[in-house]
């Protein structure tokens, strides 16, 4: 910003170089993480607001740089999507979630469903649904032990073939959630046609609902629409006791957020669940 006028071209050029550099650096990091098998899944519990029980958790991907510092997925997922690495990474996530479910067998966590995030790009692979079901089968797992989360735009942007894949998954028993609900442009007509089990309300609504009547109205509307379609409604980003009171008053079904637990490595899950159930 300090160089205006004749240096403007230079400024923009270096900006593009910076972005290219960033893109290449993250891409290389992802490739080496795949090669070294050093990606990691963290898990964040979803709390059933009716009885306080925990029967599902979301798997959130973590990638660490050369100094073992985490690179946020909001940074590396877009690079993975643009570079085509998302399919390999997505496959890694499916495999890792299944391995975790196997590792939890016979422990107090064996009833826990793992919900993975899918990128819309992965749904363009026509064999994705079959591949997921085959992987579950190979690990001797039930489809109901896995869930998938997709944003509304990823599903709605998709063609009938992609929706057919979600139908295959749902019919087999895989839990399907629409992620970041309310931020896209789905209409109620779409919602009725989509094979869906849950809506996850984007955390921005909850955070604004505390101060803003229209965001509060949107939240109420989403919850009642979800319920009238027979879907369970999950609220993301519950950080404070006030927000927790609000989501309970609005009769949300499940909550996820820092108030309950931050995403954690699998090793931390037994101690967390023990603390919650207290036995
Ligand atoms: P998302 O699917 O909407 O995941 C929820 C994000 O909110 C996670 O960020 C989670 O750590 C964060 N979060 C949870 N509770 C709270 C809270 O109380 N307050 C606040 N401020 N944040 C909270 P994270 O882990 O950084 O992931 C960001 C995004 O990256 C995810 O958003 C998802 O879109 C994407 N992502 C993560 N893992 C994967 C993956 O395996 N595959 C794909 N395709 N995308 C992924
Ligand atoms: Ca998600
Ligand atoms: Ca979300
Ligand atoms: Ca998101």
From TrEMBL:
Residues 23-277 form the EAL domain. It is found in: Cell inner membrane. It comes from the Bacteria. This is PAS domain S-box-containing protein/diguanylate cyclase (GGDEF) domain-containing protein. The chain holds residues 307 to 585 of 587 of the full protein.
């Amino acid at each position: 910003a300090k160089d205006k006028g004749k240096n403007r071209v230079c400024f923009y050029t270096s900006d593009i170089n910076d972005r290219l550099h960033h893109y290449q650096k993250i891409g290389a990091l992802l490739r080496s993480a795949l090669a070294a098998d050093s990606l990691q899944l963290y898990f964040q519990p979803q709390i059933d607001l009716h009885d306080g029980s925990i029967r599902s958790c979301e798997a959130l991907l973590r990638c660490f740089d050369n100094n073992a510092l985490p690179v946020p997925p909001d940074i590396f997922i877009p690079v993975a999507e643009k570079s085509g690495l998302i399919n390999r990474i997505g496959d890694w996530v499916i495999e890792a979630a299944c391995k975790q479910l196997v590792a939890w067998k016979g422990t107090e966590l064996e009833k826990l469903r793992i919900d993975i995030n899918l990128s819309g790009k992965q749904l363009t692979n026509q064999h994705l649904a079959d591949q997921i079901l085959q992987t579950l089968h190979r690990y001797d797992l039930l489809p109901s032990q896995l869930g998938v989360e997709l944003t509304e735009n990823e599903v709605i942007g998709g063609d009938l073939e992609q929706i057919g894949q979600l139908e295959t998954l749902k019919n087999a028993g895989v839990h399907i959630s629409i992620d970041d609900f309310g931020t896209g442009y789905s209409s109620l007509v779409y919602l009725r046609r989509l094979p869906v089990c849950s809506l996850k309300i984007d955390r921005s609504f909850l955070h604004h609902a505390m101060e803003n009547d229209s965001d509060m109205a949107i939240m109420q509307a989403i919850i009642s629409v979800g319920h009238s379609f027979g879907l369970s409604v999950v609220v993301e980003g519950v950080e404070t006791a006030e927000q927790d009171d609000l989501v309970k008053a609005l009769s949300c079904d499940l909550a996820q957020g820092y108030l309950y637990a931050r995403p954690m490595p699998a090793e931390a899950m037994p101690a967390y669940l023990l603390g919650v159930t207290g036995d």
